[in-house]
Amino acid sequence: MKAIVQNNYGGPEVLELSEVEEPKIGDQDVLIRVYASAINAGDYFSMRGKPWIVRFSVGMPKPKKYILGWDVAGRIDAVGKEVKQYKPGDDVYGVCSHTFAEYVSASANHIALKPENLNFEETAAVPSAGLTALQELRDVGKLQAGYKVLINGASGGVGTFAVQIAKALRADVTGVCSTANLDMVRSIGADHAIDYTKEDFTHGDRIYDLILDNVGNHSFSEYRRVLKPRGIVIPNTGHGGMGYVLKAAVRSVFIRQQGGLKVTQSNHDDLNILKDLIETGAVKPVIDRTYPYNEIPDAMAYAEQGHVRGKVVIRVQNT
Predict the structure, then answer these.
(1) How far apart, in whole angstroms, are the C-alpha atoms of residue 263 and residue 253?
(2) Strand, coil or helix: 310
(3) Dihedral (CA of 188, 141, 131, 5) sign
(4) pLDDT at residue number 242
(5) Of 60, 105, 266, 304, which one is least surrounded by beta carbons within 10 A?
(6) 3-30, pLDDT tens digit by residue?
(7) In what order do the strands lie in the sheet with 148-152?
(8) DSSP category for residue 139
(9) What is the rounded CA–CA span in Å between residue 240 and residue 253?
(10) How far apart are CA 250 and CA 50, in angstroms?
(11) What are the CA-CA distances from residue 281 to residues 65, 114, 188, 209, 275 (Å)?
């Protein structure tokens, strides 16, 4: 099968189309024919080998035919002998590794049937970003109805889902974004939209129960100015980087208003929650651009600039 692989660390130029072996599946896995995937921050961390810790999973001293990609939307081609809930021909989505390929092996516990009202490309925008937003808000932030929530970086991949999920959970939502994205952030449900080029929300009058920070452009002391005494700020990797989140995790041991490290977990139940939110119209993916499979290096170069509105999607195969 064909896959986009990297044999070195660096920029998008290290990515190349190559023939690789089709993955084998275990008893609890499924083989998915990949129709679409999407780009996440972890993909360019892995591509560049920065921070250095990612090299332990990608390859030391350099990768060998490593395949990027975490999000998958596609059709099941085969199932392991212990898989009972899925069958060949089912359209599914979820999170697994090496999805910039024509086929991928995934644990049956890490996928769900795809939302019926989305096509494969729209569906591919959902898994990683949607799960991160849901789990950060619900599990770390303990979001409740009536909370005043601020999403810093509201126009990005996680941010666009966080705005909608927080609103679906009946929070009062403020989104922080650039001038160009104000209308879009309002259109997906934000009660208030702040243009960061004109206003610094950390010096504003509004006080929040919860801040989800997808940017990392303020210090934690600045965030605490606009947090309630029992409020919490949750750092997400975004363009603040993994080092930012690790630093926050250490500080959370000593500072009450600091969310700890949360590793997004792909699981059937949460994917079904997202599916229900999408099918009822409460949540919809925001897609900036869609690139064909052979233009993944160009897609990575664009995404890495850090100004993506929603998600960058990869069309792997036509249905």
Answers:
(1) 17
(2) coil
(3) positive
(4) 47
(5) 60
(6) 999 999 999 999 999 999 999 999 999 9
(7) 192-195, 172-177, 148-152, 208-213, 227-235
(8) I
(9) 20
(10) 20
(11) 40, 15, 11, 26, 10
On whether the CB atoms of residues 78 and 30 are closer than 8 A, the answer is yes
User: In the structure encoding, which two tokens stand for residue 211, read together?
Assistant: 């801040």
DSSP track, 19-51: E-PPPP--TTEEEEEEEEEE--HHHHHHHHT-S
The pLDDT score that the predictor gives to residue 219 is 85
Structure tokens given for 11: 């920029």
**Residues for the chain: how many in total?**
319
Location of structure tokens 């210090």: 219
DSSP for 235-292, please give it. E--TTTHHHHHHHHHHHTTT-TTB---------HHHHHHHHHHHHTTS----EEEEEE
Cα first-last separation, the chain:
17
